Amino acid sequence: MQDSEEVREATGRRAGELFQLFRDGRPRTRAQLSVLTGLSRSTIVSRVGDLLDLGLLATVGDAVSSGGRPPSQIALNPRAGVVLGADLGASHGTIALTDLAGDILTRRSEPVAIDTGPAEVLGWLTAVCRSMLTELGRQESDLLGIGIGVPGPVEFPAGRPSNPPIMPGWDGFDIPAWVGREFDVPVLVDNDVNLMALGERAANPRARENLLFVKIGTGIGAGVIAGGRLQRGAQGTAGDIGHISIARASDIECRCGNTGCLEAIASGPAIASALRASGVEVRTGHDVVSLATRGSIPAAQAVRQAGRDIGEVLAGCVSLMNPSLIAVGGSLASAGEHLLAGIREVVYARALPLASEHLTISQSRAGDEAAVLGASSLAIDELLSPRRIDEMLAV
User: Fold this and answer.
1) Rounded to an integer, what distance in angstroms lies between the CA atom of residue 123 and that of residue 304?
2) Is 125 helix (H, G, I), strand (E, B) or coil?
3) In the 8-state DSSP scheme, what is residue 177?
4) Geometric angle at alpha carbon 216, from 196 and 238, rounded to 5°
5) What angle do CA 36, 37, 38 make, to 5 degrees?
6) Cβ(260)–Cβ(252) below 8 Å
7) CA dihedral in degrees (23, 28, 31, 33; nearest 10)?
8) C-alpha–C-alpha distance, residues 378 and 192, integer Å
9) 28, 289, 326, 370: most buried, per Cβ within 10 A?
10) Radius of gyration of the chain (CA)
11) Chain centroid to CA 10
């Protein structure tokens, strides 16, 4: 926790900024807040009182007394509302309701085809949300925010997919406006890999400041967190490593129209195609993982080579951004050490020792919940931002 002029300056202006001190979940007394911020006790009492009335803070017991009546402690009230996190994939949809600390209260995953179009998919999302609220004994008024991940590029400020290759009918579609007609709450939309990076950060203590989340499945992409902030780039395409060219794929055409892309030889479908050409009975990336984990030598070798190819690109990423963690997720990550060994082999051999000395390369700790955790985190960060809280207090 910061304890400096920076904290004093930030919290000296509004209650929304004071509230940010409680985001870490630690209880504090009013006297501790006064010392930490430099604000007078009367100002602290007034602003904390406003936040208690709003329901975002709650008293959580007494601190140890140094004589006289023990002072009460105040902390974030995670039960003040719920947030929806949704992960919309090519053929599935996963939805979770979380509390304001990001802890999952209930979760549901069902087959949903993204190519049926926004009206059908978002209709399913809103219906399931209402069902889950009922299941928890919550009212629609308890829903405070929604985060949604989609499998394609997103113009983040507007929440609109931008030329998504596997999402026919979604290009430029105003997802926040459509969902906002059903639920009058903030709705934020981002690429699924960006949200996986946020979800990994929430689930993994090692991933706070500098993290690269790599999703390997039907496609290959990365979510980049540098300096504690998600990096989307100028047009929201930061982390699109699947279309970086590598030598071994120089004459192979990619679905993007170029040749030589990493995705053309190291994605699940590409590995399956190469195995079929060598006489192995396999249809999908999931089949490849199944064979590799059951001891098939050709499948295991193919997955490890894919890891090497991915490692060739990641070695450059390590030199560029110097992450402390590379977390690997997506369907192909289920191959475990077969994939990770190939990635590590090349990254540790090619990256500079100073950049890789303390680098961890591991399977995602958040796993299948990475995207919904990230979607919830995205919504919570917006909902509990200083601006939003001050707007709530001004009503």
Assistant:
1) 41
2) helix
3) H
4) 60
5) 105
6) yes
7) -10
8) 12
9) 370
10) 23
11) 27
> What's the rounded Cα separation, in Å, for the pair 287 and 283?
6
Q: Which two tokens stand for residue 136?
A: 């928890």
In the numeric block, the tokens 């430029």 are attached to 172
The model carries a pTM of 0.89
**DSSP code string of 305-360:** HHHHHHHHHHHHHHHHH--SEEEEESGGGGGTHHHHHHHHHHHHHHS-HHHHTT-E
* E strands, 19-91, in order: 28-29, 57-62, 72-76, 82-88
Would you tell me how many other CB atoms lie within 10 Å of the CB of residue 338?
Answer: 22
Provide the sign of the torsion angle of the four alpha carbons 373, 286, 160, 156, taken in this order.
Answer: positive
> In whole angstroms, what is the distance from residue 395 CA to residue 387 CA?
13
Two structure tokens written together for 85: 């996190």
- What is the chain's length? 395
Span 144-165, pLDDT tens digits: 999 999 998 999 999 999 988 8
pLDDT tens, 167-191? 999 999 999 999 999 999 999 999 9
Q: Give the C-alpha separation, 332 to 268, whole Å.
A: 6
Q: Which domains does the chain have, with CATH numbers?
A: 5-78 (1.10.10.10), 81-196+371-394 (3.30.420.40), 205-364 (3.30.420.40)
Supply 84's token pair. Answer: 């929806």
Query: What is the C-alpha to C-alpha distance for residues 45 and 202, in angstroms, rounded to an integer?
Result: 31
Where are any strands of DSSP class E within 113-186? 143-150, 154-155, 160-161
Q: How confident is the model at residue 235 (pLDDT cuts 50, 70, 90)?
A: confident
3-class DSSP state of 267:
coil
pLDDT band (50, 70, 90) for residue 62: low
CA pair distance 170, 179, nearest whole angstrom? 14
Q: Determine how many CB atoms are found less than 10 A away from the CB of residue 395.
A: 5
Q: What is the DSSP letter of 109?
A: E
Residue 69 exposure: Cα atoms within 13 Å on the Cβ side: 5
AA letter at 184: D
Q: CB–CB of 162/153 below 8 Å?
A: yes
CA 177 to chain centre: 22
